[in-house]
Amino acid sequence: MRSVxxxxxxxxPEKHYLTVLEHPWxxxxxxxxxxxxxxxxxxxxKRGARFLxxxxxxxxxxxxxxxxxxxxxxxxxxxxxxTYLADSMQFMLEFGCRLAPGGSYYLMPSFRGEPADETHLCxxxxxxxxxxxxxxxxxxxxxxxxxxxxxxFLEHGQRExxxxxxxxxxxEHMASAAALPRVSFDxxxxxxxxxxxxxxxxxxxxxxxxxxxxxxxxxxxxxxVWLTHPDHLSVPFYQAFAPHDERKALSAxxxxxxxxxxxxxxxxxxxxxxxxxxxxxQVPEEDYEWYVNMNAxxxxxxxxxxxxxxxxxxxxxxxxxxxxxxxxxxFNGTDILP
Length: 338
Description:
This protein starts with 15 loop residues before the first helix and ends in a 22-residue tail after the last helix. It has eleven helices and 15 strands. The chain is α+β, with helices and mostly antiparallel strands and 338 residues long.
């Protein structure tokens, strides 16, 4: 049974910081955030990966507006230069793999232009990594990382999570879990056939699951499932083509908790495939000239993933509103202090 309830102080953002200073929910949250930070570093250090110190501004966002875009970029004027706040620095982690053969990773903020809701924050923390290898390699790495995080929560934050969630059964399950189930996007569509509103079709060969579709699929697999090989047009251009069907992408989303919590994918190995993908997604090559050049002069087979830290904590706390997982609120279009 929960003994600490979220105060929902995001509903009064001008007073939120005072609630944070006084409420046990947020004292517990600081413990959980710290566990994610130190256990992430511990996990990657053992695997020989390198932490990268990266900027939060970029001229080449990872989800450009166009086919496959799943976010709205946040554009700012920086000393007269149009600039974006990073929606992800996944490109830089690919860059980092050329410097660190054991892989590269970071924990840093990401920015999105959509309004916040119960599953989405305008500014959130990303745990992202890139490794050498293919999609299967990164999916197995993600599962190992989740087991490590769950074990760390149990070791260092069990009291706090019992107060917030009322149980740690889900953490014990994850810490000892075997390989998680996988289902292709096309298989999932067949399984959800007849469920109204489960699949969203933006254009032919460009479909995605809705939140209700994700929840229904998770229910069919006991709460945890990889959704693999989506329509290529539904994901960003940098995801590799599936070799058996280039209408599909070598990418996967891990659904648990509120739905998509981790996105993973393999990148194009050849510059020819990268250029074909840019053209397919109607993204001008000149906007990503540096990325094309890197792949032309330093080709490498890599795969990576991004974990939304607050979505992970939402699952750990068995909570239902991500706006309760921010120590300091940031809503687009709202001036909030501190």
